[in-house]
Amino acid sequence: xxxxxxxxxxxKTPLPLSILGLVxxxxxxxxxxxxxxxxxxxxxxxxxxxLSFGATFAFGQQxxxxxxxxxxxxxxxxxxxxxxxxxxxxxxxxQAARKLSVEFDALEIRTTVRGAKRExxxxxxxxxxxxxxxxxxxxxxxxxxxxxVDGAVKGVLVPNDAxxxxxLQDAMKERLPGFDNDKTYQTVIDAMSAMQGSFHxxxxxxx
Length: 207
Known about the structure:
Helix 1 runs antiparallel to helix 2. Strand 2 and strand 3 form a beta hairpin. Helices cover 39% and strands 23% of the residues. It contains 5 helices and 7 strands; from the N terminus they run H-H-H-E-E-E-E-E-E-H-H-E. The protein is rod-shaped. It has 2 domains: 53 residues; 107 residues, PH-domain like (Roll). It has 207 residues and is of the alpha+beta class.
């Protein structure tokens, strides 16, 4: 974006006319003010005095700006995006320090933070896959891979930016019956473009 021009391109009143207008407005203001005070606060003279004082100020500003140009205020054209405060260097470093990854093997899916296991669920226990849009300044999809284990809900929560999620999606197509179909694909596409809500992706059918 180009810088704003220093010079004001708007037409200016010639200085002699500005001085003449200042003198005329000042004289009218004084004359109307005197009549206002001697004619029991006449509304007409009061309005005329007010308008004249306003014109006096305007002509005075024009003359002043000829000798002392007003400072130009630079326009800040940059727009602060919502949630940008959460992307400060310190918070980015803290986010990277607790960056979550997802891993899997032949037995289970597990999430880790800096190599330490956080949550896990066996492949044969996975009964439901849902994508939920997280709340906050920067909403993002989160994969909820869960199932019932001994009467309690168990599973893993995987942010969409987690390292290893692409490989996990490929594995789910192979290991979760019925996951690899057009309906599942369309649900995932819808969830990726959403700003809120919950999207049911897959459920294990009863044996």
